[in-house]
User: What shape does this take?
Amino acid sequence: MKIQIKMSGPNGLQFEVISTRTVEPTNQKKYVAYKVVIRKLSGAEDINPAFLERRYNEFLALYNRLRREFPSHFLGLQFPRKAIIGNFNPDIIASRSAGFEAFLSLIGSESQLRHSPLVIAFLQNKELDEVIKLIQHQEYEQARPLVENGFRLMNKMQTDRAPSVLRWLCLFVCVCWFSGDKRAEALVGLAIRRYQAVSDIDLLRYYVPLLHLAKKICHGSTAETEIIANQLAKLKACGMPTDHSRDLLSLLIEDLSQSVVS
Assistant: This one.
């Protein structure tokens, strides 16, 4: 079902419910899934939008938790009410779509909400769970579009060097490398550049494995190899271990698996 609704926030993000579908899980009640496209508004059209699909109960759970933690932010928001019947009625679906867009627009416009662990979990944990399972089965090509979308989504909602963004970016580098995607070299260069101003110790644990992976990806590129070697030398001079004891992907999967469970 096509929904013609758009909601834009003052931070330059636009949220649009572009379609809905009825999902009928085995041995469970059917429900409506709402697909949202997230775009950045600027002078040029956003050619790399991100997508998010969630059901009413998932939006409601996030709303209730955020309202308890940040009550003053939601005083003027009319969130769609829970309906006993009529969940598949086109009018109710359209009304809910508008409500979800207003809700997401509010989140997108408030830094305190965007960076809340509740919002980050809502935006990424469902897809992360699927990505982790695919990677554990070495199905990198199937995982790649999910990872690409996850990176785009978090990169729009968070700052360039936010922990969730850098983790998705490193994961994107890995799945491109293991699936033979030629974008791996450009992406690993982007990741290294973003790491230049990072001081978060939890994120720095990925930096050495990232540099070692970059050496493989950029093999044969003298300029890039020299940059990577210089970075490793600087880290070693600062007392940071630079041995290749852990590979980046296994480290990411270990940490992300714990974050999804928590």
